[in-house]
Write a structure and sequence with these properties.
The structure holds two protein chains of two kinds. By secondary structure, chain A is an all-beta fold. Chain A contains no helices and eleven strands. In chain A, the strands form two sheets. In chain A, strands 2, 4, 5, 9, 10 and 11 form a six-stranded mixed β-sheet that branches. The radius of gyration of chain A is 13 Å and the shape is globular. The termini of chain A are far apart. Chain B is mostly beta strands. Helix content of chain B is 0%, strand content 54%. Classes of the chains: A mainly beta, B mainly beta.
């Protein structure tokens, strides 16, 4: 069964304190792995797509990496405005266009 | 471009009532999706459509029906609402093409069934 597990469930950081969020996945052939950001009361906002092990993508203070079993979202010198829930999702080769989401990591950054 | 829009934003229903949620996208995307998001459960796919006139079941389709009469619209219907359908509903769309494509989400509809 295709599965996505995110850890930790919640993470509290001080402004400037770098850290990483983990997304472990089990899928029968990975077509793509996606990272989204979701602010309270809003829809998920697309951040990155990763396709193959070894791939990395960056956007401002965020960098996403991918291995054959997991993905990391590294947050460098976070600011309070980075506070949000970060969602990981996978698309399997045999699942058509459906995305399988993890439950998310809620990040709080205090100044 | 407005992207993906959803109507209504909030709704309260009584058990047994029916309603339709409307999703519209102006990005000319082929694929559209309906998800529900519940605390501790993450986003779960209800139904999806790979083109005008076609629909398919997702992970949690029971109690819902959908229609895609126009490419830009995807409707989600609840024929007889139940308290278990209290949730936040998100619509999403994505383009068709080779490989994997990100999905773009609407702002959500918060539904409460009493």
């Amino acid at each position: 069964e295709d599965q996505v597990t995110q850890s930790p469930e919640a993470l509290r950081l001080q402004e400037g304190e770098s850290s990483s969020l983990n997304c472990s996945y089990t899928v029968s052939g990975l077509r793509g792995l996606f990272w989204y950001r979701q602010d309270p009361g809003k829809g998920p906002e697309f951040l990155f797509t990763l396709y193959s092990a070894g791939e990395e993508k960056e956007k401002e203070r965020l960098k996403a990496t991918l291995t054959k079993k997991e993905s990391f979202l590294h947050i460098t010198a976070p600011k309070p405005e980075d506070s949000a829930t970060y969602l990981c999702a996978v698309q399997a080769n045999q699942a058509g266009t459906a995305l399988i989401f993890g439950k998310g990591t809620t990040l709080s950054v205090s100044s | 471009n407005a992207g993906v829009t959803q109507t209504p934003k909030f709704r309260v229903l009584k058990t047994g009532q029916s309603m339709t949620l409307l999703c519209a996208q102006d990005m000319n995307h082929e694929y559209m999706y309906w998800y529900r998001q519940d605390p501790g459960m993450g986003l779960r796919l209800i139904h999806y459509s790979v083109g005008e006139g076609t629909t398919a079941k997702g992970e949690v389709p029971d109690g819902y029906n959908v229609s895609r009469l126009k490419k830009q619209n995807f409707l989600l219907g609840l024929e007889s609402a139940a308290p278990s359908q209290t949730s936040v509903y998100f619509c999403a769309s994505s383009p068709r093409g080779q490989g994997s494509h990100e999905q773009y989400f609407g702002p959500g509809t918060r539904l409460t069934v009493t």
